[in-house]
């Protein structure tokens, strides 16, 4: 038995035996195929207001350092809390982009660009009369025997912060806002910079964040006006939609914009692994892997192609294992191998797949009640890494050329990095049993000097220490520092099981993920 060390712990690894499971052959001789890191181009986050908080920006820095991500997407750049517009005494609209500037200034200072989601409806121009009038109605009698009194009612909104999700009362006011907004961005940041920001019209108009009826027709009207207005300001700006949940409307959207000659530069939609099958209605296909996220992404891609526009890129602007914030999925060990499986299965389907979300600074359902389990974030509000964060950090170390790995190319993903290192990620999604993986490298003289990093239930997670602390709702500074240290990604350790010339054995504990780095020594 050979001991594989990782983070100070050890696992027993059997020496190589021809009677064991056949080896997975990794061909290190060829150039491989392009392997774009689509999963780390962008990450999601909560509404624009949160980008002004210290913890949000700190976690953005941590995530960018670990993944190199370029774009962040969030709701509510037009939310009422941003204070961007209000009528004067004569009824004329005035724009105030100071908070918008603060949000975008902060992101750019941290070397992150916005993937601009144009939402939600400013109440001053929305079709909810009560909200348009500031929430005030004339004196009313709540009960027959009570004195009349004024009321303030924002019940027409959705999400915890009561986002206004109505159709504009007058489309001309919405178009004027879009025109002023885009022109202001180009004036402040320069046209060449803003041309690198994708503009996505709204968020999930098929869901509760759009109340106009009929949903599809009214959204298409909003999209048409928005896209044409943006292109009238600068034809080089990129705009797309429909930003729907569960890959809804993708084919209908492409058919519509082409039929009506509406500008479109990309198609966007969302998918979660626990979206109900009757909501998705995925067609049977021999290409499907059983991974809901990737099967749905493939279906969306095919819908665009079948509409006759394979040139249109598909952006998955939200994806995740679980849309239910209360399940704490990002905190649990199983999420790490799930993320890697999804990266493996979705390879080549979309140039951007934006995981929801990078930080627990998230208030769609209210202020998060606990540090762990928190929200969807890779990092808690105190910056404590979760297994999901460490999974993305390991994936970042893969190369940009994918190498053949066995006939089935199952629970292994092999790449070559620019420095020549063969980077191989392996995973085990079984919750009860360990799994042995045997690798044989063709084209290498030896695998001496290989290192390994393992994430499992005891490494790369704060869970054990958090339990020992008594699950503090809001950790103190010293507690948070200790949890951050406990959850840190383990350092690479010598892979003692890689001494068999060009072969390596790796034992994967239950619900685990391993990254094997092999220096190239060619024949």
Automatic annotation (TrEMBL):
<protein>
    <submittedName>
        <fullName>Glycosyl hydrolase family 39</fullName>
    </submittedName>
</protein>
<dbReference type="GO" id="GO:0004553">
    <property type="term" value="F:hydrolase activity, hydrolyzing O-glycosyl compounds"/>
</dbReference>
<keyword id="KW-0378">Hydrolase</keyword>
<dbReference type="InterPro" id="IPR049165">
    <property type="entry name" value="GH39_as"/>
</dbReference>
<feature type="domain" description="Glycosyl hydrolases family 39 N-terminal catalytic">
    <location>
        <begin position="24"/>
        <end position="127"/>
    </location>
</feature>
<feature type="domain" description="Glycosyl hydrolases family 39 N-terminal catalytic">
    <location>
        <begin position="158"/>
        <end position="488"/>
    </location>
</feature>
<comment type="similarity">
    <text>Belongs to the glycosyl hydrolase 39 family.</text>
</comment>
<dbReference type="InterPro" id="IPR049166">
    <property type="entry name" value="GH39_cat"/>
</dbReference>
<keyword id="KW-0326">Glycosidase</keyword>
<dbReference type="InterPro" id="IPR017853">
    <property type="entry name" value="GH"/>
</dbReference>
<dbReference type="Pfam" id="PF01229">
    <property type="entry name" value="Glyco_hydro_39"/>
</dbReference>
<dbReference type="InterPro" id="IPR051923">
    <property type="entry name" value="Glycosyl_Hydrolase_39"/>
</dbReference>
